[in-house]
């Protein structure tokens, strides 16, 4: 799907901004995705997100490896719906629910 990467990036940035976890999360695996054209594009997506080794207040570098220490490991399966108007660079998270994986 053409705009999937930017949609996933928008979702995880929104998730990390709202999270009060010490560490940042990142999309670990894309499990399912559907696209529906409306006045824009709606993406219904299921992803597995996992805690990284990068601290939220640390320097944001591009490679944040997934946590592998047993005590710090944490993953969620998230279903979300993003409404986007890609040609206007507009994204809105309409629905989001995450369950611990």
TrEMBL record:
State a single Gene Ontology molecular function.
cysteine-type endopeptidase inhibitor activity
Family matches, as CDD domains: CY
Question: Which Gene3D superfamilies does this one have?
Answer: 3.10.450.10
User: Which keywords does the record carry?
Assistant: Disulfide bond
Pfam families in alphabetical order: Cystatin
PANTHER family to which the protein is assigned, alphabetical: CYSTATIN-LIKE 1 (PTHR47887:SF1)
- The family this protein is said to belong to: Belongs to the cystatin family.
Q: What protein is this chain from? A: Cystatin-like 1-like
